[in-house]
Amino acid sequence: MHYWLIILSVVVLIGTQSHAQELSETEKICTLESVLEENSGLVSLNGHLWTHNDSGNSNELFCVDTAGCSVLRTVEISNAFNTDWEDICADEHYVYVGDFGNNNGDRTDLCIYKISRDFTLHDSIEHIETDSITFYYPNQQQFEWENYSTNFDCEAMIADGDSLYLFSKNWGNLKTYLYTLPKVPGEYPAILQDSFNVEGLITGAAIDTVENQITLIGYNQYMTSSFIYLLDSYQGNCFFNGNVTKLKPGLSLHQTEGIELNNGDIVLSNETFSSNPAALYRTSLVYDYNEPILSTEITPGFYPNPAENSFRIINCKAFDRLTIKNIRGRIMLETDLQSDSIRLPLYHLQSGTYIIELRGSKTSFADILIVE
């Protein structure tokens, strides 16, 4: 889904269970076709990447060419409705599509569609049918409309063993809750198993059942910075009790929604947001668990913020270009950076919220500027 309200950003660091982890450079694979501007969820089926769109879009699955991002196949789930499809996963025999997006916390019709994988083997199949797993959160006491403040939203799901595992998207406390459900069609309570303070919003999940690795994709609550959590060395389904590693893919102002593990790489997808079109990205992991727990990198600073007539940027020597945009992506100011700090006048900007982007040859950074 698209979110247009963006407020002041806060830089967060990883928790005490986490390790620092470096990512090799994130590579853009290709821009997705316009029909997938609101894609949400990725899964690899028989060597092909599949995705779907989220709320209010068609009840279709799309097979995507990972070389050029063209849509190779479209399959309709005839007896399903897309209220808010947010993630897709699979096991050996079935595909599961999560219709559990709940940004406002008022849904009472949460469900997961369970579909035989047979359609992936026959290119002539254009229409399929599904069974349903409906569920509710026993710990949810009220269903009044909450504008992006509920802790009962969800956009991430994996299948492992005889269960489905949901990772919630908590707008209220920026944690994720781990729930379990059986794979058998029917109606069930989602059983709360664990929680973890991700200090952000989880929007997708993937599992490698051979290597026992789980990846979670998400972004901070203002969508100025994406992150990945890698979970490994866990026992059973105690996913947060092993190594928990926060990764930085270096994507600013990207509404990252889908994640999949593919031949040692992490494949990511994002919706169209701001000036960034819907696209696929690839990155690889470089493991070193001897790295220190907390990152010591120096990030740019902006002050005063909120600002009136002017503001200063410091620690920007790694960047060579600054752009200020309004929240709809229109460029309001663009200039070169030639020193470690710079002061910019703001007389030409009306009061409001703006996006600051810094770009260099090897890195980028984004934050929010409030002009009073």
CATH superfamily of the largest domain: Glycosyl hydrolase domain, family 43
Distance between the termini: 29 Å
**Residue fraction in strands:** over 45%
* Secondary structure tally, helices: 0
Going by helix content, strand content and strand pairing, the class is mainly beta
pLDDT < 50 stretches: 2-16, 287-297
Tally of discrete structural domains: 2
Strand numbers in spatial order across the main sheet: 1-21-20-19-18
- The CATH architecture of the largest domain would be 5 Propeller
Helical residue percent band: under 10%
Shape: globular
User: Biggest sheet, in brief?
Assistant: 5 strands, mixed
What is the gyration radius calculated from CA atoms? Answer: 21 Å
CATH topology of the largest domain: Tachylectin-2, Chain A
Tell me how many strands there are. 31
Q: Give the class-level CATH name of the largest domain.
A: Mainly Beta
